[in-house]
Design a protein that fits this description.
InterPro entries: FtsW (IPR013437), FtsW/RodA (IPR001182). Helices cover 67% and strands 3% of the residues. By secondary structure, the protein is mainly alpha-helical.
Length: 427
């Protein structure tokens, strides 16, 4: 009994390690964001460093949220999954409360926190990913085998999308649906069943997209922005001029001309165009490479978690990877003229308090996933060693009859039979 307690204590005392590739990519993007916000917004605001100081404050608070998430056990987060889903709907309804919700250019997407406005959909992204990860764990077999289990998360996502369209926020609504579909696929949903909702949903999204005249203008202008360079194509033409002017290595940090009140939202939605002008093609490749590293590593961590039967951690990693990957893809595509203009920030790089805060929190959650994965791997290895040590006395009499082994030679290692651990024991 005492040996079992000592073994359990040894297993519990084992810690993990935060994935250095994830941490390095996130820090590199955040540092690049600070530099480029300082450069792109220097001519905006009441002072040259107005937006930079705001960005640094939000980034500091976001790092605090990331540290808190990194130190929180995932099993504690999973316990509150239903409350997190309820919070998603409450937050999206709060923007319509008079006195609390804030309307900007006819859109009700923010709530007033006194010191700053906050875009609630950024919180909803994180909370919904956590709830969906928990749902896929609880109904993993049913999602693959039955229609109701597969349609329930799609129905919940549709309810959130309706609230987002009422704000209106078509970009976030489309992103949320894409994250839901991606997590269901990675969670093992039956693919033939998935085609039905997709075939129904895509035409509905198309109808919603063309229902508003300004969305139709965005869809048509990006195909030929030079047809109306001072109207519907104004943002994209200036972004393309900035990127073209940067050529291979840019005009130098701080040397952008388009940011001087020519390129709208140069520090938020179109910050990549400023990067292209000042750092050139090399700078854009650096940004794309960092996002590829971050998303690819997050997917790898999620896959390893699923293999180790840490399904909730794995699905959280999948969801965050899909979120960062899809949002960065859309933002980069908009800046390069590959996609219609849409107000989605470049994660960890663009200025924007709500986005910076919640992206940092998501990075903290992702790093926590990597920490618990490393801890599990170490526990499995130690459990195998303990099982081997416990089995050693049983073979002692047989070994006693055998001749004594030759003394070990320096520089060589003693070989011993390996007992493969069973993951079911730690699931």
């Amino acid at each position: 009994m005492n040996d079992s307690l000592r073994q359990a204590t040894r297993l519990e005392a084992i810690g993990g390690r935060y994935d250095p590739w994830l941490l390095g990519a996130a820090l590199a993007l955040a540092c690049l964001g600070v530099v480029m916000v300082a450069s792109s917004a220097i001519m905006m605001g009441s002072t040259p460093f107005h937006y930079l100081s705001r960005h640094v404050v939000f980034l500091t608070v976001g790092i605090g949220l990331a540290v808190w998430a990194m130190r929180t056990e995932l099993k504690l987060v999973e316990q509150y999954n239903r409350l997190l889903l309820l919070a998603c709907f409450i937050l999206l309804l709060m923007v319509f409360v008079p006195g609390l919700g804030v309307s900007v250019k006819g859109a009700h997407r923010w709530i007033n926190l006194g010191v700053s406005n906050f875009q609630v959909v950024e919180v909803v992204k994180v909370l919904f990913i956590v709830w969906l990860a928990s749902y896929l764990v609880r109904f993993r077999d049913e999602v693959n085998a039955t229609w109701p289990a597969m349609l329930k998360p799609l129905g919940v996502a549709a309810g959130l999308v309706v609230l987002l369209l009422l704000q209106p926020d078509f970009g976030s609504a489309s992103l949320l649906l894409a994250i839901t579909a991606g997590m269901l696929v990675l969670g093992g949903v039956n693919m033939p069943r998935m085609f039905g909702p997709v075939l129904v949903g895509l035409p509905l999204l198309a109808v919603v997209a063309i229902a508003e005249p300004y969305r139709v203008r965005r869809l048509t202008s990006f195909s030929d922005p030079w047809a109306d360079p001072f109207g519907s194509g104004y943002q994209l033409t200036n972004a393309l001029m900035a990127i073209g002017r940067g050529e291979w290595f840019g005009v130098g940090l701080g040397g952008s001309v388009q940011k001087l009140n020519y390129l709208p939202e140069a520090h938020t939605d179109f910050i990549l165009a400023v990067i292209g002008e000042e750092l050139g093609f090399a700078g854009i490749c650096l940004v794309i490479g960092l996002y590829a590293l971050l998303v690819g590593r997050a997917l790898w961590v999620g896959l390893r978690c699923v293999e180790m039967r840490r399904h909730f951690a794995g699905y959280c990693a999948f969801g965050i990877a899909l979120w960062i990957g899809l949002q960065s893809f859309v933002s980069i595509g908009v800046n390069l003229g590959l996609l219609p203009t849409k107000g989605l920030t470049l994660p960890l790089v663009s200025s924007g308090g709500s986005s910076v805060l919640m992206t940092c929190a998501a990075m903290g959650l992702l790093l926590r996933v990597s920490y618990e994965l490393e801890r599990t791997q170490r526990q499995v290895a130690l459990r195998g060693d303990l099982m081997q040590a416990a089995a050693a006395p049983e073979t002692a009499p047989a070994e006693a009859a055998a001749p004594a082994p030759a003394p070990a030679v320096r520089g060589t290692s003693r070989l011993r039979p390996r007992i493969e651990p069973t993951f079911e024991r730690i699931a």
